[in-house]
Fold this protein.
Amino acid sequence: GQNIDQPTEMTATEGAIVQINCTYQTSGFNGLFWYQQHAGEAPTFLSYNVLDGLEEKGRFSSFLSRSKGYSYLLLKELQMKDSASYLCAVSAVPYNTDKLIFGTGTRLQVFP
Amino acid sequence: SQTIHQWPATLVQPVGSPLSLECTVEGTSNPNLYWYRQAAGRGLQLLFYSVGIGQISSEVPQNLSASRPQDRQFILSSKKLLLSDSGFYLCAWSRGSSSGELFFGEGSRLTVL
């Protein structure tokens, strides 16, 4: 079966650093994605990891360990606008990178 | 630039009534198209995807259907809605390349009463 696990909720303070973890067990692996979704809005793409290691993009970084079936999204210098749900998704179908399996999302609340 | 629109944004329908959600993509050709549903407390669930006109793959057995009458048009339908069909429906497109990035529409919130 396909399974993606991430914490349901997290809280953090403005200016701090937060790490959102994601573990997955899937029948195949073509890459791992992180999306951001503000309440009532559509998800927007944040990052894509296909090889082990850290990918940095501004205040956001994403890490992948394929052998451990593990990823994390690191958010630095948190801002109030970072309050949102963060969705971990895996592409598990051979030759079709776009068919993603999504986790339930982690709702992050940033407090002043 | 590419844009994606879906409508209606919100609708309230009685059980047993029909449904039609429409999605169109502009600024690109031959996109892969997707319908996802996001129920409360659950992750995004892939319902249908299409790699071309008239080509629809169903991911989950249900009373919903999808059609792609034109290259950049994707329609989600039901003949008789169930209470369990309530949710947030998202249309998305991708280039079908190895990037895997999905571009989502604004979403349609369906409440079945």
The longest strand of chain A covers residues 18-25. Chain A has a mean pLDDT of 93. Residues 62 and 73 of chain A are 5 Å apart (CA to CA). Chain A touches chain B at residues 4, 30-31, 33, 35, 40-45, 48, 87, 89, 91, 97-105 (CB under 8 Å).
